[in-house]
Amino acid sequence: MKYLLLVVFLYTYCSKAFTQSSLKPDTLRVYKVGYKNIITVDSNRIYKRSTDSGSKLHFRPIEIDFWYPISKSKSISPILYGYFLSLLQQRSNRFQDDTFYSRITSELVDYLSINLKISDTSRLTQLQTVSYSNEIPFPQRFPLILYLCSYNGISYENVDLFEWLGCVHYFCRALSGKHEYSNAGSDGTGDRWGICD
Known about the structure:
This protein is α/β, with parallel strands linked by helices. It is built from 5 helices and 5 strands.
């Protein structure tokens, strides 16, 4: 057993490690990248109990972030990173109906700026990505990668990765959504129910 551990350790120690980075050579970027936010509903799953089917939260809401190869862009400038950071606040407000959140984006920007040691927060929100909004996909079939975000998660932490995959022949769809509606108050009471339906 100790020899097996030694072999695994030596293999991982000696192998090259690759991380997510935007320092990839532009010569490898074959296509420009389009981005589309798709808002839909899973009508097979009840999201908020004690509502009728006409309620906007009766069925489970789902949002899909879609990155895809495009041949050329109609837009002059790509999407700013601040847009992706604002998705958490937008989705938090769409996935429930009892609280309106107005500061999630600014608090997230402050948090990231402090931890990344960025003194001017506008540098983070005004950072240009390489994604162009609502462009026409390249007319060819490409492999599809599905990314399932965590609980009420969004995909802003992986924008660079999805853009890279989009420019080298992949469709990337990141699905975001909550499994349950929670109306739990600060004391923990409320109509909270499990995801085992």
